[in-house]
Amino acid sequence: MTLKKIIYPFLLITIIISQLACNSTGTDSEVTDDNADIPVDEIEDTIVTNSNINWENWYLSVPINSGSGKATSIGYEDIINDRLTAEESKYFYENEDGSYTMWTQFTGYTTSGLSELGDKYCRTELREYWKGNQDTDDNWSMTTGVHILETTLQVDFVEGNGRTIVAQIHGKASDGITGDPATVKIRWNSGTIQIDHYTKPDNDEAWTSNYDEKLDFGQVDNEIFTFKIKIENGKLFCALSCEEKGIDIDYTEIYDYVGNGYVHENYFKTGNYYGWNDDYEKAAQVVLYKVKTEHSL
Fold it and tell me: Which N-terminal residues, if any, form the signal peptide (predicted)?
């Protein structure tokens, strides 16, 4: 092989590399970085979040000791900027398709304090701030307006008794009003969606589960489903759809709350409120695909 044959390819490759290098730094093919002028410590706050959830309207509860013997509350900033600890991420994490897995088991750490086996229940659940004020006094009344929760979920598994609550209207105790009622509970019960709602108590007693009624609303098993709760003119309406099961139930009137003297302020919840407290081993897992609320006064 001649020296010319060896040198020529080498020179050709060198010329090509030089041209590419010039183009990459020249003005004709300038590359820009949208975050170039943003300080490094602020870049994480520009993360694009799941458009299916307006996180400012929620906080997350997980059954981990907050330090005070109660469950841990996680604000939306930590969720959208992926700042959950490794322990917190065991209970709540984002999937590749943008959905969120909500896993839970009985740990003893509830929102009202440490509990022994067989007493209260644990949850991985979202609690609504309907105005986005991040204030637990930020609640709405059934006496005015229309209030809607629409949540799309899939229950992967529920060990033990097969029951977990996936959505709620929860009443808020306030001055002159006794009780703190879990007014409406939407329960996944061994694949059946069950509406468990409080009714008017006797003799001006507090609204409690002593006067609840249960209604089986549809069998979704482990398929994706969308449940809707609406309060309009003081009345509770519910709707359910599940494409895989051929279910498409439009809004159905369930109960007239204001007409029966209900006066509590309220907030929506959705997630995995696990109805098991017999051991520390069994678990339940729910996937949240979408949740939105609407309030018109």
Answer: 1-21
